[in-house]
Design brief:
Length: 195
């Protein structure tokens, strides 16, 4: 969601949800242009979770649920308002995960998306269902699988501004590729010296 939220100042060309997905795909592909494999992991928004109940209390019922379809007009809706309802966020993450695979179906890159407990790719890979609500743990799980799939000298780069990810990556470094780093707002951090 970090990459989605960075689109808060939508370009004027973003009129519909489909336009938003195209803009999201362009930014994702630009940010990851130097990599052969992309793991795009979204939080799972479960209505029965403690996190969901906490969000509801904070909003005090002021969130509006929007339909997430190609033709949904969002030109005059601030992204923060569009993302204020958990079901809209859940629908958008499912939609973006599917669109990223659609846009990049013939790509030479391996692209793996995970949203709402479903992990899929643009190649013939099989995945188990997952029940991680937090993208943090699912991201680590997918990175461990990627570490087993790739040569030992490959580079693994996480893109996240969250300190939680830095801590989890460091704690699980022994399961990851040795050339692992994380790109944060403060810059790129190599994990081996921290570990």
């Amino acid at each position: 969601m970090v990459l989605v939220q960075r689109l808060s100042k939508k370009p004027a060309t973003v009129v519909t949800v489909k336009d938003l997905s195209g803009c999201f795909n362009d930014r994702l592909m630009s940010r990851t242009r130097d990599y052969d494999e992309i793991l795009l992991v979204f939080d799972t928004y479960r209505t029965d979770s403690l996190k969901s109940a906490t969000r509801d209390k904070r909003r005090q019922g002021k969130a509006i649920q929007y339909q997430v379809r190609d033709d949904t007009n969002i030109k005059h809706i601030p992204l923060s308002r569009f993302l204020s309802h958990d079901q809209t966020k859940a629908d958008l993450t499912d939609y973006l995960a599917a669109k990223i695979l659609e846009y990049n179906w013939g790509s030479s890159k391996l692209i793996i998306t995970s949203a709402s407990g479903n992990t899929r790719s643009n190649k013939d890979l099989l995945f188990e269902e997952n029940n991680h609500e937090e993208a943090d743990m699912l991201l680590i799980h997918q990175a461990v699988l990627a570490s087993h799939r790739n040569p030992a000298d490959a580079q693994l780069m996480f893109f996240s501004p969250d300190t939680d990810i830095l801590v989890l990556v460091t704690a699980n470094y022994d399961l990851l590729l040795k050339n692992t780093s994380i790109s944060m707002a403060s810059g790129v951090v190599q994990i081996e010296p921290l570990w």
